[in-house]
Each structure stands twice: as structure tokens, then as C-alpha cells.
Amino acid sequence: MKAAVIVFPGTNREQDMVDALSACMGNDPILVWHGDPTVPDVDLIVLPGGFSYGDYLRSGAMAARSPVMRDIIAKSEKGVPVLGVCNGFQILTETGMLPGALMRNADLKFVCKDVRLKVETSQSLFAGGYQAGQVIRVPVAHHDGNYFADEETLDRLEDRGQIAFRYCDEDGGLNRDANPNGSIRNIAGIYNEAKTVLGMMPHPENMIESAQGGTDGLALFSGMVEALS
Amino acid sequence: MTDVTITPELVAEHGLTEEEYGRVLALQGREPTITELGIYSVMWSEHCSYKSSKKWLKTLPTEAPWVICGPGENAGVVDIGDGQAAIFKMESHNHPSFIEPYQGAATGVGGIMRDVFTMGARPIANMNALRFGHPDHAKTRHLVAGVVAGIGGYGNCMGVPTVGGECDFHPSYNGNILVNAMTVGLASTDAIFYSAAAGVGNPVVYVGSKTGRDGIHGATMASAEFDDDSEEKRPTVQVGDPFTEKLLLEACLELMATDAIVAIQDMGAAGLTSSSVEMAGKGGVGIELNLNEVPARETHMTAYELMLSESQERMLMVLKPGSQGQAKAIFDKWELDFAVIGRLTDTGHIVLKKDGDRVADIPLDGLNDAAPEYDRPWTETAARAPLDPAGVAEPDDYADALMRLMACPDVASKRWIWEQYDHLIRGHTLQRPGSDAAVVRIPDSRKGLAITTDCTPRYCYADPRTGGAQAVAESWRNITATGAKPLAMTDCMNFGNPERPQIMGQFAGCIMGMGDAGRALDYPIVSGNVSLYNETNGEAVLPTPAIGGVGLLDDVDAMATVAFKQAGDAVIVVGAGRGHLGSSLYLREITGSEDGPPPAVDLEAERRNGDFVRQLIRGGKVTACHDLSDGGLAVGLAEMCLAGGMGAEVSLPASDLPRHAALFGEDQARYVLSVVAGSADEVIDAAASAGVPANVIGKTTGDGHLTVGECFTISVADMRRAHEQWLPDYMAAP
Amino acid sequence: MKARVHVTLKTGVLDPQGKAVAHALDSLGFEGVNDVRQGKYLELDLAENDPDKAHAAVDDMCRKLLANMVIENYAIELDT
Fold this sequence. Notes:
The complex is a heterotrimer. Chain A has helices spanning 14-25, 67-77, 87-95, 151-159, 218-228; strands at 3-7, 30-33, 44-47, 82-85, 101-103, 111-119, 135-142, 146-148, 163-168, 187-191, 197-200. Chain A is an alpha/beta fold. Chain A is globular, with a radius of gyration of 16 Å.
């Protein structure tokens, strides 16, 4: 399996993503600079975390308009899987590849801590390593992770099984205290309709070995590698 | 600019004394231009020249076989084996953070990271030591919120984890908060970059952001006492742009991987002035700059403004001949300004040109070597009478006393702060904030760096020499408690007005104590910063020599953490408890007194006990380890229970000490360990043969309670609530 | 010519920053502030001098970058 990790000016979690992917793939993903007109042919394109363009104007807004994104949109339309984590999720919503928007956290503060996620479905090439309903622990680290979409869009997402992860408590309960950023309906990650694009705020790539305090993020990568190899 | 007449008022506004101005006249052989006056003013400011502190700083231990570069460069460098070096420094940004907390703290973080990556290191961890005024002071809440957001805003965007630090409150900081930021970077020992310029004719290159009128006179502001007008100085505060600094970091590291750079220095305080003067001065060459080539953000900037601006995210480099093209291509890729603004000369002078005019011409050896150096008069702080613990009131209710300590501002959880810092990015944070020391792994290795910041200002105030030694010893102990070997430290010396003999006495005392401890523990100081004049209307801050320590773990799998791991482990206290309550947290929080001397620091015992504990940890004998400091044994045990979600049942070692003194005394050189029950005897025997006092005091439990003999039983869950709730509740209050 | 662009959150989109400002105003003793909505203000210096063309260009900029049409509205003013 081959993967490409896209680097924008201000991207800063690309190495974390490379570490997680190479641990599962057995080879290093290709780093692609945002100014490159095309992404090489790969089995997976990843938009990693960071502060592309300093989060200026809106998080992800300027990266979404960079040259390489045109090629990524084209490849995605042809079915190449795309994973966006944190700033990557913000970029995906800014391009319209995923619906909704990520706004400033409800309490206005940057938040870095472990959260619990409920895996809503394992029926995707990304989440095959999990069971539906499973509760996993991974960290978040963001200032703008407050997911918003209008009710109609949200209902459609739910109907079509496009919710990937929701913030929950240790027992899988969906409540306000378990929600670190005010996201509507506790949404932490969503798919596109074809489930070939996943955007999520939490960082599974920072929870892949016990030295990091847990390994719940690993199954996302190992599951993806299994599905795409 | 030649039309500005230099009046005595103008000289005074530039912070130069009459005598200092006399030196300027002698060195120049004429009246200086306004640009020259500005340059002398900032170079001879306390901040850049260390004129009050130099005499004392020279007495500190700075060498060890593993020290590659001590004080005097952008940051200190220590060898960590395998061809790698840790590069680190701590720096203050106190005055700017008081005036504009978000930007002041943010640019402080940006500045210290530049100091580290200037030397060729990728920053891998940030720390910070914060001191705020009394929680009830009208400004405190606003300052905490702004400083924390600023530190996070900058470090998070840079992608450098902020892994720990400390945060205390005391009324002496009401008008002068302390914001000390530390960065640790990782470099190859064969690719470390220094600032001494060399090669007459070599191009001098400016990279990074454009120059605006930000922070003009920041360096002199950092060397002046506050008065009530200071808050009017707002327009001179610099604004940070972490996005640009992230690009600058990547561009510099990319260029450093080539062979193009002769010397490099960041433009920090006093911007272009200090960087060009120091680079040329250290290299023993001259430098000529054409200020028309400096990338400017604003129009009609004068030579004076260009030289004194403190715009952030800028670097000055001397390149090898013929490498400009390669260097420029890298900076173009990262969309950063790149301008050749001058060249090195053999004149020994700094010569500045603007619009064809020579606006400044200063002999560098005069500017550097003839800088004033003062042996300021100082008076020794009077020793305090011993405080008999038997004379200190016992608490009515021990459980309540411990709850109050766990929820007091200095001990309460700082989660509200560190959850606003990305402490996990890079994926190598092995001990998160809230530990004795943070631990970050060295990528692709089994090694880790233990990092800590420490100081107990109330001890320094009561007895500067003991307090200085204690700050170093606690730093050394916190690193030891992870199993790491302490390597070296950086310091941030925060004091009041050194022209007052009493303050100068605090400074001298702390330095002497730090020197004593550094020598005894083989723990040299490799970098640092001095921040004086931290006082408002004559009210000085407590003497605060913040110590940033770095240690090395050879194998992170053999690391110890504070958390109790399992029920049934034996709990052991290492070190002698003498029930010292003078200047203790118990005395202050429970009885309302800040009286008495600090605990004695026995450096031989520190070393003996610490070496013993480290050896135990490395031998895999220890399931948890915590050093004892604020609040003594009781608070130490409580923190270990909280971290592990475990209980413990202990009784006080047999002694004739009053119970509250044994529980809350802050005697030094002590640790609490847990070991699996079966190996307790072996550990006690080993301690006896090493001449280290050690006692089994009880065991860990799974029942969720901390019980100390006949003193109290307290629910760990209740304690957690009290410990976690103080800061969020405080910050949420209107 | 100069263009001024105001970007504001659409009605119904929660504005935590505006809410915080309203709260702060209230605690400072400013009464009668029913609601605060925070937005962005951008100044564009354009080479174009024809108002219609300039307006059309800025409108396009707003849709493509300056505003996020999922959550934001915009208003354009031109200095003629």
C-alpha cells in the first residue's frame, strides 16, 4: 500500500501521521508539498493536522484553495480515499468535500486532552479495525473543532450512516460533558456519502503505542491498511 | 537624522547615566548621532549588557565533560550521546506580558524557540514558569487568561509540545508578573551553529518577517521599573506571528542542512542592533549595513527605528561566498523575505548607511568591551530565627488541612492551563504535564529527556543563599525522580531593582546558593537570562531564580512516574524528615504566616539520596517515585494517589516530631517510592548500606482512600475534586 | 479603489465569541445589550476602478475564499 501525506505551510502533525502510517504500512508515505500540481498515484491521501496558513481567515480556508487540492478533489471523485485529521478535516469542509463547518470551540479555548469516541459504524474502509459501538480513547488538540451543519444536513448524515465518530463518556453515553468543543450532536468525525472521505478532529495518530498512553488509535491505521492493501 | 540634537534629556530618556554618556563621548570622540545613541542605549541596557549581574554570573559553574557550549551563545548545548545534543534555554518576557498578556507571552515563546533553532536544533519541547499576583488582585484573572492563551497560541501553531511548567501566585507579583519560557531542542553534535561572524567580505543576510515599528525600546523597557504610566506604553508591544516563525524554522533547518551558513543569530531584544553588534563583535570583525536594503513593513522608517525595532520572526546570517543563490531559493520556497543587507569588513566598526549617508559608525570593541559593569553594593539578607515546629499550631482537623493545601492556588491542579497547550504533538510525550518532570522521547531511540522548571521564591526571600541552592536541588531531584541523570540547567533570574542593596543582596545570595548546589551536584548552568527591575512603586517581586533542568534517560522503559500503580505495593520514604515548618506551605496556608527560615539544603545528602533513588529506578525496583517539596509528605502522598487513582495506608515513622510537622514539614532531599511488597526489605537494606535513610511507612491500597495513621482518612475522589476544581472555578468567576 | 467586506455569521449559527463579548459587556455594567454577533472586517485595495466590475470581483472573492458560505454571510461596500 502507498500513501501520500500533504504538507501545507503551517502543517505540523505530518511526522506524527507518517509515523503511524509507516508503523502499519511497513513503508514510508510520500510527503507532498502543497505547491505541487499533482499528487502521485497512491492508495490513500492524508491531510494531516496543523495550522495551515496560520489558521488565518478561517482554519483550513486558504489551504483548501491551494493548487494541490484541485488534484486531490479530482482523485477523490475517482474514488481515491482521503483522510483528513484536525486541520485536514477543516480543509475538507472548506473544499466542500465534506458538509458542514468547524467553528471556534464553544468555550473559546484551545483544548488538548484525551477524549472518548463512540465508533458509529465499522462499515468503511477506514473503520474496519473497530466494532460499531466500540468506545475508544484518543486525544484532541484544536481550537476550531466545533462541528456545525444545518439540521437538514445533519439528518441526512445520520440517515445515510455518514457519522463516523461521536464524543462520548467512558460508557458510550452522548452528553454535554463528554463533548470537548460544543460540536453539534457530539460529532467528532464524518464520511462523505460514498464513505471514501473521512474527516475527524481527534488524533488517532498520537495514540498508537502504550508509551503514548494508549493504543486505541492504531486500529484505524491497521484497519485502513488491511482494507487498502 | 543628523539634525537631532543630543540633549541631556534625550540621553536620560535612553536610560544612560551621565557617566555612561561620558564613555560614549570618549569612544566616539564626538557627539553621537541619534542612531548611535539608540544603539549604545540598548547595548548598554541591563537586558543586553548584564551590567549589574555579570560580576555574579561569572561565579556560576558552567562546565562539565558533557557540556558542549555554556553561557554566551543563543542557548546552552549538552551532549546526550550518539552524536546528538540537547540545546536549551529559558528566558523571561515579564514586562511585555504584564502590559499585553497575550502578545507578551506569545512573543516570549517565539523568542526562546528562535534562540534554540538558531543553533541548528529542532525544538522538541516547551516549558514555562509563571508567577502571578494574588488571585484576588483585580488584574490576576485577566493576566492568567491572556498569558496562557498567548503561550498556547504560539507554541501550538509551531507544532512544539508544551509539556510542563509551574504556576504560582503571590501578592509580590501583583504589579509584575513573571513569564519565563523554556525551549529544548535536538541537534546533531556536528551541526551546531554559532553566532561569531567570520570572513571579511562575506554577505550579511536578513531573513524572516519585515521590520515594522514594533517594540522600539523594548530592551530598555525590560530594564526599567514600572510606574503607573507603564500601561500607556502599549503601542511598543510586539505582535507575534507564529505561522511565519514556523516557516522560518523549517527554512532555517533546511538551509542548515546545506553548507551555506557561517554564523547565525536571531533578532530578539534590540533586534538588528544586538544581532549585528554581537555577531561582528564575537567574530572580531567589522560590519557594514545598508539600511535601505532592510525589508520594511512601514514607510519612512528611520535608521534609528530600523535598528531598534523588535519586530519578531527575523534572523541575521552571515553566508559563505557563493551560497546566496541556494539560500535564497530555500527562503523563496517558504515565502519569506531574504535580503543581503551588508557585508563583513576588517574595520572593527559597525557602520550603518541610509540613503547614501553614514548614519552610524561605532567601534565594536568599545561598544562590547567598554560596556559598563557594576559591582553594585549589596547587603546580606538577615538570617531568620529558627522556628520550632512545636510552636506551630496543629490543625484542628488534619483531613481539612490537607484538603485546603491540595486546593490552595500553588498546589491546585493546573489542568486548566496545560489543556490549552498541545502537549502531545510529535507523539513523543511520555510524561505529560503534572509530573515531577516532563519526559519526551528522542525519536528513533530508547532515550528520553526529562525536563523541569523549579523555584520556591518564598524560600529565596527568607534566605537567598539557601533558596538558590534549594531551587537547583529540587530541579535535580525532579529529574532524578524519573530515573534520569540530571545534565545541566538554564536559569531565569527574576529580581527587583538592583540599585537597592537589599535586592542586590538577594541576587548575590541566590547566585551563591545556585553555585554551591550546581558544583556539589555536577549540574552546571549552560544558559540563562537576567530580568531585573521587576518592581512597581518600590514593591519588588519575591526573588525568583527559576531553574530549568534537563536530564537524560538512557532507556525510557525504565522510567518512573508519580502514579501509584497497584494495590499492595510497599510505600517507602527516602531521606530524613526533621519536621521543618519554617517558610512552609502549611505555615502560610493554614496558619497565615510566612515566617521562619527555609529548610536546610544538605547537598551531600541530596546527592547520596538522589543517586540511590536513580539507581533503584534504573534497576527496575520502583513502581512509582515522587520527590517531596511543597506541603511535605502529606501532599506528596496525595499527589501519588491522585495520579494513580489509588489509595494508600501509611503511618508516620516513629519519631518525637509533632505529627503536623512530620506530615507537612518540607525537609529536602526526600522522595516517596513504591516498590512491590516482596522487594521492600531488599530496598531498605540497600539504603542502609548506601547510608541513605529509608523507612517503609505503609502500602498502597485499592480502596480509594488515603489514610495516615491516627491523623486522617480522606477520599481520593473528594481530594481530586478539591484539587481539580480551584483553578477552573477561579477562572470562571466574573 | 477600495472595497470593504464585512463577514458575519448567519442567523441561527451559534456565535460563542459574540456571546462571550455580550457577557463581558454585561459584567462591565453596560446594560441593554440584547445580543452581540462577532464578525470579520477586511479592506481590499483594488486595481479595478469600475464599481460594477469591482463589485463582481469582490463578490466572487467572498464566495470562493473570504466567507464560508456554510456559516457566514458577507456584505460589500465600495469606496468610489
